[in-house]
Amino acid sequence: MINSFDSLIRDAVSQQPPTLAVAAAADSYVLRAIRKAVDMRLAGAVLVGDRNEILRLCEAEGISLDGLWIEHAPDKEQACKLAVALVRERRAQVVMKGLVDTSVFLRAILDKENGIRRAPLLSHVAAFEVAGFDRLLLLSDAALNMYPNVDQKQGILENAAEVAKALGVENPIAACVCAIEKVNEKMQPTLDAAELVRRWREGLISNLRVTGPLALDNALFEALALHKGITDPLAGRADILLMPNIEAGNVLYKSLAYIAKARNAGVLIGAGAPVVLTSRSDHEDTKINSIALAIKIALYERSRA
Amino acid sequence: MINSFDSLIRDAVSQQPPTLAVAAAADSYVLRAIRKAVDMRLAGAVLVGDRNEILRLCEAEGISLDGLWIEHAPDKEQACKLAVALVRERRAQVVMKGLVDTSVFLRAILDKENGIRRAPLLSHVAAFEVAGFDRLLLLSDAALNMYPNVDQKQGILENAAEVAKALGVENPIAACVCAIEKVNEKMQPTLDAAELVRRWREGLISNLRVTGPLALDNALFEALALHKGITDPLAGRADILLMPNIEAGNVLYKSLAYIAKARNAGVLIGAGAPVVLTSRSDHEDTKINSIALAIKIALYERSRA
Q1: Cα separation of B162 and A70, whole Å?
Q2: Per the CB < 8 Å rule, is A254 touching B227?
Q3: Which one, of A304, A284, A227, A298, lies nearest residue A37 by Cα?
């Protein structure tokens, strides 16, 4: 089981690295991250975007284009479509957003005719390496699905389970994070948690185990759950934190990244290929971790194909 | 300005300590915390509860009753009512919950005839001492108000401002924490944030300054807010984090307390006296910090009376 980003990166290096298609690659931050990932043998890369602009940036920043392929697409929307097409044609196994609006990029991915929809839902999974934990913690959804209903939450869980499996977690445990441990009719997340546990017990959700409702402390720390008298043997052992809404997800994400200063990565899952969607303000470490995570997922999918 | 719990405790010690009325005091955890607070000269105390049980526990645990007053009330509901009555009669300046259901305790406080309602709303304020910050961070509401509407959020802000002022923060800054920085009609917390900022700008909210919508990172870190191009001079400088819902509040509370391991305290505010409502599972440090915070608020209110 992969329990750190160092071990993830070691593990994601392969003899025949999957190929990354970068949509609207003409951005020095993105180009630097790609260069580094290729040098680390994590990935091959196709830079889709304005060729002249890419050449100009690489020259200005001293970024070598050795072994990188450029597909010329001066228009950003067109670049997104072309990057997605590369996945559809199996010439790339991971898609990455460059300097283009997220909405334009996602539209190309989700396009009914030419996109790469697969699962019922696309969701964001963040991975955190938190001091004191023997595992990476997966958090979903802190970015994409705002107020998921119980069916959407099931989709989020199933997507997150795929990430956990790619990280070598045999039978991941997902905790439905709420503000309390008891079902309270006035708190929808606790009702959803009970329903998701029921579905899992009845075999309607596979690939992972589900527990909840649990507050964060009792989702993550066995000793605290025991002390509180919680008897569910899955309490305190979560690999996956299912967040009740985007505010709770985002707050936990930011708290772990900026206050606990935990190394992290993010990926979109549920499309025909894992999607890297870092933002300019992300640390370079986060960008590389995110590429490594997406590549690891692509390798996992290749191994099952 | 008080920026740590050590300085809070130093500052809350006084020549004539306010009196704590403890409702249903027959609990060894509670009795130990009270003993310590009295020994530290933070508070005087009236133990309201079953006299025989209190005497038995103190003897069994070796807790001295020197300088503690017992008001006999064998029934827990009666004990709550009596503790509240002590505040109403100005014989106590802080109320603390002992071993009794929170709902029974709160009912006595909020009782229309015999309670100690004051502000339009009772809210929970948590204070955190987070490494790297030059101030205590106040978080509300992580415990009591589940899904506050914009008027209730205003009440939560006004209550939190009172806590900030008691800690010596001249003109506290409150950030309306959301998942993003822009108003989005699909995200009610961003609409509420804009409305609260408007009310503050128009002078309808006093005693504090309001900023938002902001994600947590941009509420707390000036450098990150600047890097993101946020021009509001209040961004990154929050003393008070107004949480959009109880799940986000609780998740941040648990993340700070159990992952960032930040020292903390909690108090209920908005009644005729500050209320200490710790739970058995809280660290003794948290119980003492909470008593000190409530006492400090009582001293602040005394100074203004």
Answers
A1: 60
A2: no
A3: A284
Residue reference for tokens 């310590």: B36
Phi and psi at B102, nearest 5°, equal: -55, -40
* Contact between residue A99 and residue A83 where contact means Cβ atoms under 8 Å apart: no
B114, B88 Cβ separation under 8 angstroms: yes
Contact: A250, B216; criterion CB under 8 Å? yes
Q: Measured between alpha carbons, how far is residue B40 from residues A2, A48, B44, B278 in Å?
A: 49, 68, 10, 19
CA A195/CA A153 separation, integer angstroms:
10
User: pLDDT band at residue A119, thresholds of 50, 70 and 90?
Assistant: confident
Interface of A with B in 247-276 (CB under 8 A): 247-252, 254-260
Tell whether B221 is within 8 A of chain A (Cβ).
yes
Q: Which of B130, B254, B256, B263 to mutate to test the interface with A (most CBs of A within 10 A)?
A: B254
> For residues A224 and A95, what is the distance between their CA atoms, to the nearest angstrom?
40
Q: Do residues B8 and B1 touch, judged by C-beta distance below 8 A?
A: no
Query: How many Å apart are CA A191 and CA A213, to the nearest integer?
Result: 8
Q: What is the DSSP string of B112-136?
A: TTTS-B-SS--EEEEEEE-TT-SSP
Residue B278 confidence (pLDDT): 84
Give the Cα separation of A216 and B195 in Å (integer): 30
A206-to-A174, A236, B118, B286 alpha-carbon distances in Å:
12, 20, 52, 41
- In 10 A of CB B89, how many CB atoms? 8
Burial of B186: CB neighbours in 10 Å, binned 0-12, 13-18, 19+: exposed
Provide block-wise average pLDDT over 10 residues at a time, chain B (305 residues). 96 95 95 96 97 97 96 97 97 96 95 91 97 97 97 98 97 97 97 98 96 97 93 97 98 97 97 91 91 98 88
Q: How far is B89 from B110, CA to CA, in rounded Å?
A: 16
Identify which of B177, B186, B221 has the shortest CB distance to residue A251: B177
pLDDT of residue B221: 97
What confidence score (pLDDT) does residue B225 get?
94
In angstroms, how far is the first alpha carbon of chain B from the final one? 21
End-to-end CA distance of chain A: 21
Residue pLDDT, tens place only, A9-52: 999 999 999 999 999 999 999 999 999 999 999 999 999 999 99
